[in-house]
Every structure is written in C-alpha cells, then in structure tokens.
Amino acid sequence: MIVVDNLVKTYPGAGGAGEVAALRGVSLNIPDGEIFGVVGPSGSGKSTLLRCLNLLEKPTSGRILLGGDDLSTFSGADLRSARRRIGTVFQQFNLLHSRTVLRNIELPLELAGLGKDERRTRASSLIDLVGLSGKEKSYPSQLSGGQQQRVGIARALAAEPEVLLCDEATSALDPDTTDQVLDLVAEVNRTLGVTVVVITHELGVLRRICTSAARLEAGRIAETGRITDLIASPDSALGAAMLPVGDDPSLGSTADTAVVTAIGDAAHGPWLSQMIRDADADIAVVGGRVEQVGDVTVGRMRLRFTAETDHARVEQFVDRHPHLTLSWGAGTELEGLTE
Ligand SMILES: Nc1ncnc2c1ncn2[C@@H]1O[C@H](COP(=O)(O)OP(=O)(O)OP(=O)(O)O)[C@@H](O)[C@H]1O
C-alpha cells in the first residue's frame, strides 16, 4: 500500500548555516491494513516523514507510492485530490472552535465540494462510529480532550482516505483516555480497513495497537519489523525497550544475567522450572512482567545465574523451545522514548 523509497529531505540551515539532513534515505514498505508505528527520539525525523507522507512537504529526493501511484510527482489539482487519500489526526486536535462537532467533521467534505445532504449523512455516520452521538451540536470547548480527538479522527476519516496518519495523537491525553482513543483507532482500522501510520514516542502505543513499527535515528531507519518479531529478537533495541524488565544496579557484573522472553502460550508455561532442571542451574528472578502485546501474551524475565552456570546448557534449552528467546547481559537503553 505505502512504499517509501529512499526518501531524503534536506532543509536549508538557519542564518546561512549548513543544510539540515532530516531524512537521509528512508525506505519502508507498509502493507495494506497495517497499523504501523514510527518511533524515534526528538529530532530523528518523525514529523518530517509524516509531513512528506501527507504531502505537506516535498521530498528532496526519493519516492512515496500510495497504491502504486507516485505521490511525489503530483502537483495542482492532482496533488489536492491525492491529499484526500490521506487523513491526518493531530496531537492538539486542530479543530475549528467556531464550528460545531458536525460542521468540523463536514469541513473536508465542503472543501471537496460535496453537497449538503451527502455531507450530513457521512458526518452523522462518522459521529456514530467515533461514539459521539448526541454531541453533534456541541462546540469543541464543550468537549473533553478525548472527545475532541474523536472529532479529529472523524474529520480525518470524512473524505474516506486510504491512510490515516496519527501524529502523536494521544500525547495530550491522560492514560485512560489514551487507551480509549487507541482502541478507537484499532476499531476504525478493523471496520473500515484503513491503513494506519502512527507517529509516537510512547512505547505503550506500539504495544497496544501497532502490528509493525520502524525506529528512526538521525534521519535513518535503525530497525523495522513486526512488533512480535522485534520483541522476540534478542538483537532488537526497540524490542527490549517495549518490554523493559528493569536493570538493578546492585546486580554488579551483568555477565551472569540474561533476559528470557516467552511469546504466546509459552508465556503461561512452566519454562522456568524446566530450565532450572534441564540446565541444572540455580536461578534468581530479578525482574519480570507479563503483557498483552496486540493479541499476543508476552512474558519476559530478567534472570541471574550463579557463576557456576553452564551458559551453553541454558542456551541449548532455549534453542529447543521455539517460543523462547534469550539475551545475555544488561541490554541497551533507548533515549527519548517513554513507557
Ligand atoms: N522546517 C525546518 N527547517 C529546518 N530544519 C528543520 C525543519 N523541520 C525540521 N527540521 C530539522 O530536521 C530534523 C528532524 O526534525 P523532525 O521535526 O522531523 O524530528 P522529530 O523526530 O519529529 O522531532 P520531535 O519528536 O521533537 O518532533 C531536526 O534536526 C530539525 O531541527
């Protein structure tokens, strides 16, 4: 559905300073129907990527294909109609305060030249979809943050886009409201089949609704993959960050600590007692958690082994269990992302 091919975006530097390379050759393949997360620390290029995707910014080079059409070649009327294929939900909602809920949602349809009856019908059914029935005549100032964002989502969907871009759409909301708005985005994805791209610095957003993700670092893709594959991979810094199990500094040397991740049914299985027997190892559990990641349960434990433990026997045990992965040592920290 969305193919980003070697995207480069360079801005002129301020006050005659050298150029700023915001994106340095980003390539992504986002299949139809995914909820794709883009994460990265401040300045890594997330907003620039989003503005290139919703055609507010022209790439310096590279291509963006949507359903096979190269959006970077469009201009004039073609560009305006291409923009309607992509709906954006903003962090600060960006609603018009002088307009009611209904008329905020109708706005993109007015701009597209739709007649009043069709606008009303479409906006009313979107109001139902986002759970705001009865609020048609309210003004944004009469709504909670979560309700305002529901209007933002309905407005972004009004022109029946193929892609919904969410730009830190839950950053201004409290945790409970965040979960409700994320669940709405997931429901919209399921019921309308719209592909969703979520720009965020919150790892909880990835865990709750994303099917795949990419991590940006200094304008480049540092890693990308399906969420469960990233979590299962001992080499993925994003996978480690998505389910941290704490680093207790009192552990001292990390040579005898490891993180074991169990995916799916294995998360509820007796793998730890089996490992202890099988590898003849004494094990202390020094951190752990079990989380629902999308529709998969993931368990992760930080274990400390005694100096006598035979690492090879522990590794052989893990190798025999396809739903377990192991990573020795303390792991890496990712800056700029929050739980
Ligand atoms: N209009 C602009 N003019 C010049 N430089 C820019 C412009 N927009 C972004 N940049 C620079 O491009 C780089 C990437 O910025 P961008 O806003 O895309 O990062 P980000 O990951 O979205 O950061 P944040 O999470 O803080 O919003 C930064 O070095 C930024 O200073």
TrEMBL record:
Annotated keywords: Amino-acid transport, ATP-binding, Cell membrane, Hydrolase, Membrane, Nucleotide-binding, Translocase, Transport
A single BP term in Gene Ontology: amino acid transport
GO molecular function, a single term: ATP binding
ABC transporter domain residues: 2-243
EC number annotated for this UniProt entry: 3.6.3.-
Family that this chain belongs to: Belongs to the ABC transporter superfamily.
Principal EC category: hydrolase
GO CC annotation: plasma membrane
Subunit structure: Homodimer. Forms a membrane-associated complex with FtsX.
SMART domains with a match to the protein in the record: AAA, NIL
PROSITE patterns found in the cross-reference section: ABC_TRANSPORTER_1, ABC_TRANSPORTER_2
Name the UniProt record assigns to this protein: ABC transporter ATPase
